[in-house]
Amino acid sequence: MKMTLLLSISILSIIISTTLLLGSNTLEAIKVGDKAPDFVLTDQDGKVHKLSDYRGQRVIVYYFPKADTPG
């Protein structure tokens, strides 16, 4: 029982430490008027789309999460 508790606390400490270290290097939030960072998405047919491929065009990204929706 003591060994399991010690192991659990050790693992939890590692997870928290890693999260805090990596979390401090997060990017700043995008502000209104900022250019969107380049990103890659895969559509429902498996085709890969890069935002940079649509440079100079108007782009709408519509995110429809499946969880808790009828989709």
UniProtKB/TrEMBL annotation:
Gene3D superfamilies given in the database record: Glutaredoxin
EC number: 1.11.1.15
InterPro entries assigned: AhpC/TSA, Thioredoxin-like_sf, Tpx_Peroxidase_subfamily
A molecular-function term among this protein's GO annotations: peroxidase activity
SUPFAM superfamilies, A to Z: Thioredoxin-like
Keywords: Oxidoreductase, Peroxidase, Redox-active center
Domain Alkyl hydroperoxide reductase subunit C/ Thiol specific antioxidant: start-end pairs: 32-71
Pfam families named in the record: AhpC-TSA
Record bears the keyword Disulfide bond: no
Protein name as it appears in the record: Thiol peroxidase, Bcp-type
